[in-house]
Amino acid sequence: MLAEQEALIRAGCFLGILILMASWEVYAPRRKLTISKWLRWRNNLSLTVLNTILIRLAFPVAGTGMAVYAASNQWGLFNQLELPAWLMVGLSLVLLDLVIYGQHLVMHSYAPLWRLHRVHHADLDIDVTTGARFHPLEMLLSMLVKFCAILLFGVSAWGVLLFEIILNAMAMFNHSNIRLPGAIDRRLRILIVTPDMHRVHHSTVPHEMHSNFGFNLAIWDRIFGTYRAQPQAGHIGMTIGLAEWRDPGLCSRLANILMMPFRR
């Protein structure tokens, strides 16, 4: 039953968080946007819809369905252990988050994968829609990685659903163009990735771009030495995007976004 309702639950959470963060961006923006918001939103959200359709066609069995299948066959670490349900879900959230951190790091480390991932970085502004701007091929690859992690760890269906909701919500939160008081930001980033922390990752400066890979928990960047506190030009003065891709039409229109991995 849970697997059948996953799409509806996730869609409702996505729309709720999108509306909340978009409203926050209007009320308390962190940076002034540099190009047309209508142009970016129209194409970024169109890409999100396209990705959702393709994922459903390519993987009729969603993550929760894969978790149910693994449990019925006693596959994975947690299906071999007798752990309380709350502990198994908690450990699943932490381990899956580590997997996503590792995947993100690898996407930056190998040229063929970077060609896919640079679609995300080529956005010339960063706001809530950037959190869902990924090339369809990267989305398919990411789903395969999650399936492997679900089978390896034996994550429960509830663990998968909670992780997907949290991951999507956090991606929209930490990509949002919102202003947080400095004291609150410093406290929050002890545990989770804040917008100011992740914005550094979208800098055109290479050593800043290749830092702060976390999407949810902030501990991985500190543990593995990829943490950078602030951009050297400051959050107002920093340039967002890729130094070699600065044309708004090339970086923001859907057809060009889809072709970006195949362009020099």
UniProtKB/TrEMBL annotation:
GO terms (BP aspect): lipid biosynthetic process
UniProt KW keywords: Membrane, Transmembrane, Transmembrane helix
One Pfam family here: FA_hydroxylase
GO cellular component, one term: membrane
Localization terms from the record: Membrane
Lineage: Bacteria, Pseudomonadati, Pseudomonadota, Betaproteobacteria, Nitrosomonadales
Keyword Iron assigned: no
Annotated protein name in UniProt: Sterol desaturase/sphingolipid hydroxylase, fatty acid hydroxylase superfamily
